[in-house]
Amino acid sequence: MDDCIFCRIAAGKAAARLVFTDDDMVAFHDVNPQAPAHVLVIPRRHVASLSAARPGDRELLGALLLGCARVAAELGLDAGYRVVTNTGPAAGQSVAHLHFHVLGRRALGWPPG
Ligand code: 5GP
Ligand code: ZN
Questions:
Q1: 29 catalytic per annotation
Q2: Alpha-carbon distance 19 to 21, whole Å?
Q3: How far is the CA of 96 from the centre of ligand 2 (A)?
Q4: SS3 state at 56
Q5: pLDDT tens over the chain, length 113 residues
Q6: What are the φ/ψ torsions at residue 6 (nearest 5 degrees)?
Q7: Whose CA is nearest to atom 12 of ligand 1?
Q8: How far is CA 69 from the centre of its chain?
């Protein structure tokens, strides 16, 4: 999808500061970080949100969560980190391509805003 910024990043058509990539996913630093460590983990394939995921995406979803843990390990987020996926307008989803935020290196309040 050429009109999707995250598809463009996954295809190497738009620049991003990469953490790692593999056959299924791309992990890159958020352009507008909300914490000292703020990385996005996205599937290469366009999936609009968690709500658009299907039973056939089960393995992909597991791989993406393991990708989030890999980000935390590679960035040394030993004190803890948070994984978030905003889904839909009320949750503040602004990019309609599934992504997990990995946030760390500061205290993260609860409940979230
Ligand atoms: P959402 O608001 O959908 O949960 O998260 C989208 C995130 O993508 C935001 O944190 C935003 O800063 C980030 N973002 C949007 N466009 C770009 C981009 O072109 N490059 C990067 N690296 N991050 C982006
Ligand atoms: Zn996309």
A1: no
A2: 7
A3: 7
A4: helix
A5: 889 999 999 999 999 999 999 999 999 999 999 999 999 999 999 999 999 999 999 999 999 999 999 999 999 999 999 999 999 999 999 999 999 999 999 999 999 98
A6: -75, -30
A7: 32
A8: 11
